[in-house]
Design brief:
The protein has 492 residues and is an alpha+beta fold. It contains twelve helices and 26 strands. Strand 18 and strand 19 form a beta hairpin. The longest helix has 23 residues. The chain is globular and about 90 Å long. It starts with a helix and ends with a strand.
């Protein structure tokens, strides 16, 4: 709307005053928090000037007009010498509706930082492509900007991860981008992948990138710090694979009356937990737990959904009724498929079905030894390998289960494979109580990815092709009625 300098100044002042946490958004720049002690609105003969600053930068522009105001958003138009007028927004960060705009502004600013980095180190290269928006049909993420650069017969595909913990997700989308470049650009197919990672959060990504199939791609890792400085990581630096293995405990299983009940209750599975507890689950849904003794605390058996109570032989009939009721609602053909007890913990349900029908996954797997959540933290990151087993030849088997689509499944499973292989090489499984009485093969572990075939992400197989030949992967696609029985309809 057209208005004079006084009206523009009062509109901005009123808006900032009404906001709990005002900020200025400009495309290509980080959001600028408007601290009232660092904000100045001045009326001059040339118009209204808005000036704001923080520890890193100063923003100063002549405001030409207030374009529109909607709720906690005020659109402004600012003068920019020699170029088209600049569109900026004032928003209230405390308003949930502003989150998407703030996130988009941050992504835009990071894309410009990525562009600057590439220009500094690849200034003589030709830009074939630069993308910073989502493209869902190709599984491109708006979080990770990408580029394709060429120079003569050379080509590099690049991806940058923003300054936050994105785990191995950055590497997944980098491989997706590289795969697309090779399929779409033919002669320009990139032979090298550039990864631009925040120094603080790059730890878990480096070992994965360094252990990919070197015959299919070369990876250069650039790390940047909080001040925007970057450096090329030494190619010999393969990262730190500092994994931990959860020790297995000797468990008694509870009082005699409880063990007798379990022997007569076929629906309940007994699953060992890494902390020494025993979890009693009905198709993956935990109904009871036996907590181990700790310090002066005696072993404690508790049961129930939600708020649990201490178990006793006198209350066993009530618990049996709970098992029957939940079993009716949580079954392959329930009366209500929208009931929370049916929908809860789908991957735990798939785990339960896999434990009971392991031969359907692979006839050579040993039903006797199957451990859940064997791995501990990696560089401070909590992990939960689904199932660790062994085949009849003593070779370790990793089973990663998904009940739904997950583009990151291959690299998540590859992370587990690397760490299990490391523990195998160090002889950690015998000293931690795994596979008693069994001699483990020194061959690399086998890896099984198990999920409904209809939920295999279109890019899963593309990412799997970048894993090294030593990582033997079986992609197991299950039928849609896996809750009833595990029928394998795809095996690759």
């Amino acid at each position: 709307m057209r208005m004079g300098p006084d009206r523009i100044a009062s509109t901005i002042t009123d808006f900032v005053t009404a906001c709990e946490a005002p900020a200025l958004l400009e495309r290509g720049e980080p959001p600028l928090v408007l601290d009232r002690s660092r904000l100045r609105i001045e009326i001059t003969p040339k118009g209204t000037w808005l000036e704001a600053w923080d520890e890193q930068r100063v923003w100063s522009r002549r405001i030409l007009r207030s374009a529109s105001q909607s709720g906690k958003k005020l659109a402004l138009e600012a003068f920019r010498f020699g170029k088209q007028n600049l569109a900026v927004e004032l928003v209230d960060c405390a308003d949930a509706r502003s989150a998407a705009r703030i996130d988009k502004t941050r992504r835009s600013a990071f894309s410009e930082q990525f562009r600057l980095f590439l220009n500094r180190h690849f200034g003589s290269w030709r830009w074939e492509s630069f993308r910073s928006e989502a493209k869902l049909e190709h599984s491109f993420s708006p979080v990770f900007p990408t580029a394709l650069l060429t120079r003569g017969n050379e080509a590099v595909a690049a991806l940058a991860a923003p300054p936050r913990d994105t785990s191995y997700h950055a590497l997944t989308f980098a491989l997706v981008w590289l795969d697309w470049v090779r399929r779409e650009h033919g002669a320009l197919a990139a032979g090298k992948l550039l990864l631009y990672l925040p120094e603080e959060y790059a730890g878990p990504v480096i070992p994965l990138a360094r252990h990919l199939d070197s015959s299919r791609l070369e990876v250069d890792i650039w790390l940047y710090d909080e001040n925007g400085g970057e450096y090329l990581l030494d190619p010999a630096d393969r990262g730190n694979l500092s994994s931990t293995l959860q020790p297995r405990y000797s468990r008694l299983g509870g009082p005699a009356w409880w063990l007798d009940f379990l022997a007569r209750e076929p629906l309940l599975d007994t699953c060992e937990e890494p902390d020494g507890a025993l979890s009693y689950r009905l198709r993956g849904l935990e109904l009871a737990r036996l907590e181990p003794a700790a310090g002066n605390r005696l072993p404690a058996l508790r049961w129930g959904l939600g708020r649990r109570r201490t178990a006793s032989e006198a209350g066993l009939q009530d618990f049996a009724a709970l098992v029957t009721a939940v079993g009716t609602r949580r079954c392959p053909d329930p009366p209500d498929r929208t009931h929370p007890e049916y929908l809860a913990e789908p991957e735990r349900w798939l785990e339960s079905a896999t434990r009971r029908q392991l031969a359907e996954i692979d006839a050579h797997l040993d039903q006797t030894f199957l451990y859940g959540q064997a791995l501990g933290s990696l560089a401070g990151h909590k992990t939960a390998l689904d199932l660790l087993g062994i085949d009849t030849q003593g070779r370790l088997a990793i089973l990663e289960l998904k009940a739904g689509e997950d583009i990151h499944l291959p690299l998540q499973a590859f992370d587990y494979w690397l760490r299990v292989r490391e523990h195998l090489a160090r002889g950690d499984f015998a000293t931690s109580g795994y596979f008693p009485g069994k001699e483990l093969s020194r061959n690399d572990p086998r890896l099984f990815l198990v999920l409904p075939s209809l939920h295999i992400h279109p890019m899963n197989e593309a990412v799997l092709r970048f894993l090294p030949p030593a990582c033997s992967v079986s992609l197991i696609g299950l039928c849609a009625h896996w809750r009833e029985r595990l029928d394998v309809v795809l095996r690759r």
